[in-house]
Amino acid sequence: MFIRAIVRTPGKSIVNGLSNANLGIPDYELALQQHRAYIQALDSCGLEVLVLESNEDYPDSTFIEDVAVLTPDCAVITNPGAPSRKGEINGLREVLRQFYSKFEQIQAPGTLEGGDIMMVNSHYYIGLSNRTNLEGAQQLISILVKYGMSASLLELKDMLHLKTGLAYLENNNLLAAGEFINHPLLQKYHILPIDMNESYAANCIWVNDRVLVPAGYSIAKEMIEKAGYATIEVDVSEFRKLDGGLSCLSLRF
Known about the structure:
19% of the residues lie in helices and 24% in strands.
């Protein structure tokens, strides 16, 4: 169960964020509205939400999941793989001190972004991507082992981040799209396959027995509900324009 979430308000500079989506420039005012609705959804799941001010110096900083990995025992400050995002970690340790006393940090030349990390109980799946390299992954594995946890590596071929195509929904249910549906390391889970035309819907988040799903993906939503979950639809169209999704917008712990 999650108790808290940390989010960061989008800045006006979001229009300059990184993107390969080719869906146009985000509408800043609409992004603000959608972000508020996202916070309300987390609140409705019983989370205490800490809202950080926007950081205009970093257009992608609203995707706060990428700058930390929060485990039950320690907070790991990452080293984002995108050069324009590296400064997003500045000041994060001070924010997290109210919740954590033990800190670790990924050091260069290692790179690692939280979107490439999926937690399943005390085991962590780490995606090797354009943003998370082997050195960063190995550093995280050493940290996890130090605190009695474990990890596995998955090499990405198509996805930006691991959680672009995966979402663990607890109870052994794993939402999967594209290259992950038949991945041998994941077959011990009950795979809920996302239709190719709705692949964006693979980035859902389980929050205390509810599943937040992106609005507009009826096939995925129905499948998740048939698996026994109550769902909450959240429109994140403006964040999709920056290759972002539901999990990217918060640190949940």
